[in-house]
Specification:
The complex is a heterodimer of chains A (about 675) and B (about 170).
Chain A (H helix, E strand, L loop, with lengths): L1 H29 L2 H5 L1 H24 L6 H6 L6 H6 L5 H21 L6 H25 L23 H30 L4 H32 L10 H26 L3 H24 L12 H25 L14 H31 L9 H21 L10 H26 L4 H26 L9 H26 L1 E7 L4 E4 L2 E12 L3 E12 L2 E6 L2 E5 L5 E4 L1 E4 L3 E10 L10 E9 L2 H18 L10 H12 L8
Antiparallel strand pairs in A: 1-10, 2-3, 3-4, 4-5, 4-6, 6-7, 8-9, 9-10
Chain B lengths: L5 H18 L19 E2 L6 E2 L9 E6 L4 H15 L5 E6 L3 H11 L5 E5 L3 H5 L7 E5 L5 E6 L4 H16 L1
The chains are: A alpha+beta (about 675), B alpha/beta (about 170).
Chain lengths: ~675, ~170
């Protein structure tokens, strides 16, 4: 019964989405106050209905209702409760349900925290979100219904993919989806602005906190995914340029560009068309990512069962949403006036360079991701594009971008003084060069790449610190600077921390792949690992082989580590659980490979992989700082101030449409 | 006006490529075993003391279907296999993969037995030789014992009619 209720709630949500997507849009155009007023309650109702459907599916999972096909495919009675809950989004149908839940959630959030916005603007924004929701709900209902029954019900379910049975995976998809889907709000603001013709500073200011919020979730979601891959896949890597990782990274790159270009539009009224295009692009790439992951056109470790009909459906959806927005853009954008002029060297120019670099980086990642598909479509064979391409193309684009981070915030709007900036950055530059020379030496071996990484990190940090000091010297104390100032510097500092992590791991990690029998010792990065023994153990839904490895440094025993090799009972899939000793300046990482005894032998030897990973946790630490920076920026007071009365008047005049000769 | 159409134009090109991409199957990486002799093995038969080896099927076109009682997708393809077996078109040999014998027997008793026989691959070693990627999988093997097709995932009415049957008919000529 519960699954049917959930299904019914989804159908109702679809109907509500139709209302939300169509009536307020017409109302805003024709000035029907009642139709405009429908937007908010419709968005909230839709959210409640989808949340109810989601709860029904979760209820089915928690109660092992295997008469629902989706649950039978992704759960099992032996599965621990936490994973039975996270299994709700462990497969295609459920993850799409999560997608529409998030979309409705963002729309509901806009509906409750937009009291200070003009009613017609809110109506249009919610209507655009409603239109997107119509498409996705239709996708769920017609091709991917999570509530389909499987009768007769099997006694036992197939179990959740063991790779996904991990705490990191409980939070990774929701965070990532919050980010992905969150760009729909920036998108909806952009489309609403294009429809109304009001592309101005106010529009940019309304979009900014929402864009930043989505960006924060996406940043943390990607970081969680990377952290999960690091400790769960047992290869010790943190980024693989896998198509699905790229699918989440593309909207991040364009979203980062969007955040910076919105700043220009808000403060200077320029870049309007460019900003709108970026807002459309960020959400389009989120949709493209969903298409790539869900249609199975690209092979990836993430691609599970796929169905060609779904691919066709979501491609049509993509074509309508993105094609429609770009058509609207081509129609309306030529009428938008360019904003204020600015000098050749100004903060605008620097931010434009930031945007160009980020977009070029996104373009090169997109090309690398789609290249196998293009080649196949042109009948030129099958191939795959791997990390060498991405590293060779991506890193050179990032270097000038990272150097710009140190300069941009210093430059004035409109007209910046090159001499003044050079003078203010002199000390930071000297420190950066010194760091580039000295830090790699301290770590052991000097190389150009590690020197460059250290130089960039210190450059960003030092120039940020000097700017903060300058600001404080102007008086007024910590409170005088707005939250967005602190947010920006914190995020940039996060970037520096991240660069240190990437540089140190790339330059100084050590790994060994060895045969070890109990009693054997191997050393890596100044640490010794002694295999003490290997024994069998049993988990809730798996059998495990657990190794005990004694970690010591300079003859002093630090701790025992327990890498595991698990075999999940329901799928007999072997999984590696690495043992990691995490530290501020380094991780040591042990994972079990395969038993090496031939039949008849009893040495108990295994292949064992040990890693020494300096500063690797800084990679994710940096991401956390970036995310916190975003949160600070969002909290800036100016986003909470009500629209100035002049704007309100302008809006009422606009919405009356043809009122002629109103005295200004 | 024209330059504002550039993003739309680029997007249209992208959609065309994605649409072509959809018609291809990235998993359709030609199986290394395709057009190679089926790996030899000798395994006990489910519910009998006799052994089975692919050589026993020499001179006939046959299907090797990898299945297990714990596999939910096998349940999905099973009615199609049962109906196909009734047509008597082509013998299907089951490879019971990493399964418990009582469970496997009960499964066949409950849902019907489309197989002329099922070989028991309890530890999955034969599966490794055949490159079993996920259960269910179906192989079409010709009269000379050469693998002519590997179908990954459940056999559907569609794939049976458009992929497997035409090939079997051609091989039987």
């Amino acid at each position: 019964m519960t699954p049917e209720l959930g299904h019914f709630a989804l159908i109702l949500a679809f109907v509500v989405a139709l209302i939300q997507g169509i009536l307020p849009l017409i109302g805003a155009q024709r000035n029907h106050g009642q139709w405009v007023a429908l937007a908010r309650p419709a968005a909230q109702t839709q959210f409640l209905l989808i949340a109810f459907a989601f709860a029904c599916l979760a209820h089915g999972f928690l109660n092992n209702d295997f008469s629902v096909a989706y649950i039978a495919h992704h759960s099992n009675t032996q599965l621990p409760t936490l994973y039975r809950f996270s299994a709700v989004w462990g497969g295609h149908e459920g993850s799409l349900l999560l997608w529409v839940l998030m979309l409705a959630g963002w729309a509901a959030a806009v509906s409750v925290s937009s009291r200070h916005l003009p009613e017609t603007m809110v109506a249009r924004v919610l209507a655009v979100l409603g239109l997107v929701s119509i498409g996705l709900l239709a996708f769920v209902l017609f091709t991917s219904n999570p509530f389909d029954r499987l009768l007769p019900a099997p006694a036992e379910g197939r179990d959740l993919n063991p790779l996904l049975q991990d705490p990191g995976l409980v939070f990774h998809p929701p965070m990532l989806y919050m980010g992905y889907v969150g760009f729909s709000v920036a998108f909806a603001f952009a489309i609403a602005a294009l429809i109304s013709g009001r592309l101005d500073a106010a529009w940019a200011r309304w979009s900014r906190p929402w864009t930043t919020a989505a960006w924060v979730f996406l940043t943390l979601g990607i970081a969680l995914g990377s952290w999960w891959a690091y400790y769960e896949l047992g290869w010790g890597g943190w980024w693989f340029w896998d198509p699905v990782e790229n699918a989440s990274f593309l909207p991040w790159l364009v979203g980062t560009a969007l955040i910076h270009s919105l700043a220009v539009t808000e403060k200077r009224g320029s870049f309007k068309n460019w900003t709108v295009l970026l807002a459309i692009a960020a959400f389009s790439l989120s949709l493209l990512g969903t298409f790539l992951v869900r249609s199975g056109v690209l092979t990836s470790v993430h691609a599970f069962a796929t169905d060609p009909r779904r691919g066709v459906f979501i491609l049509i959806l993509l074509a309508i949403v993105v094609g429609g927005s770009l058509l609207l853009f081509a129609w309306r954008a030529p009428k938008v006036h360019a904003g204020g002029n600015s000098g050749l060297f100004s903060r605008e120019t620097l931010l434009l360079m930031n945007n160009v670099l980020l977009v070029v980086a996104a373009g090169s990642v997109l090309l690398g991701t789609l290249y196998p598909l293009l080649i196949d479509a042109l009948n030129m064979g099958k191939l795959s594009v791997g990390p060498p391409y991405f590293n060779a193309v991506f890193v050179p684009i990032m270097v000038p971008l990272l150097l710009l981070v140190g300069i941009g915030p210093l430059a004035r709007w409109k007209h910046a003084d090159l001499k003044d900036i050079t003078a203010r950055l002199r000390v930071a530059a000297v420190l950066a060069v010194l760091a580039g020379i000295a830090l790699p030496k301290l770590m052991g071996e000097w190389s150009a790449l590690t020197a460059l990484g250290c130089l960039i990190a210190v450059w960003i940090t030092a120039s940020g610190v000097f700017q903060i000091i300058e600001r404080l010297q102007r008086g007024g104390g910590l409170k005088s600077a707005p939250a967005s100032f602190w947010g920006m510097h914190l995020a940039h500092f996060g970037l520096a921390v991240f660069v240190i992590g990437v540089t140190m791991v790339g330059g100084y990690q050590e790994e060994k792949d060895v045969r070890m029998a109990p009693g054997d010792t191997v050393s890596v990065g100044g640490y010794s690992f002694r295999l003490i023994g290997i024994k069998e153990a049993r988990g809730p839904n798996y059998l495990a082989t657990v190794g005990t490895v004694e970690l010591s440094q300079d003859g002093r025993v630090l701790k025992n580590m327990h890498p595991e090799k698990r075999r999940y009972l329901s799928s007999s899939m072997p999984m590696t659980e690495a043992a990691i000793d995490a530290g501020f300046t380094r991780d040591v990482y042990v994972s079990l490979g395969e038993p090496l005894d031939k039949p008849g032998e009893k040495t108990g030897a295994w292949s064992v992989r040990v890693y020494y990973k300096p500063f690797i946790d800084w990679i994710w630490g940096g991401c956390i700082f970036m995310g916190l920076g975003g949160v600070l920026a969002m909290l800036d007071r100016r986003y909470r101030i009500r629209v100035k009365s002049a704007e309100t008047v302008a809006e009422t005049v606009m919405s009356k449409g043809t009122v002629a000769g109103t005295p200004a | 006006m024209k330059r504002f159409l550039i993003p739309l134009g680029a997007f249209v090109v992208l959609v065309i490529f994605l649409a072509i991409g959809l018609t291809r199957d990235p998993r359709d990486v030609p199986s290394p075993l395709k057009d190679k002799p089926a790996p030899a093995f000798s395994l006990p038969q489910l519910g009998s003391d006799k052994a089975f080896s692919p050589a026993d099927m020499q001179g006939r076109v046959w299907l090797l279907n990898v299945w297990a009682s714990w596999c939910v997708s096998c349940r999905q393809e099973h009615p199609i296999l049962v109906a196909f077996a009734k047509s008597g078109n082509t013998p299907i040999v089951g490879l019971n993969y990493k399964d418990q014998i009582p469970d496997a027997k009960k499964w066949l008793a409950d849902f019907g037995d489309p197989y002329v026989l099922s070989a028991v691959d309890a530890d999955g070693r034969v599966g490794i030789n055949y490159g079993v990627y996920g259960v269910p999988e179906t192989y079409v093997i010709d009269k000379a014992g050469v693998i002519r097709l590997k179908h990954t995932g459940p056999v559907t009415a569609d794939s049976l009619k458009n992929q497997i049957l035409p090939l079997v008919a051609a091989l039987n000529k």
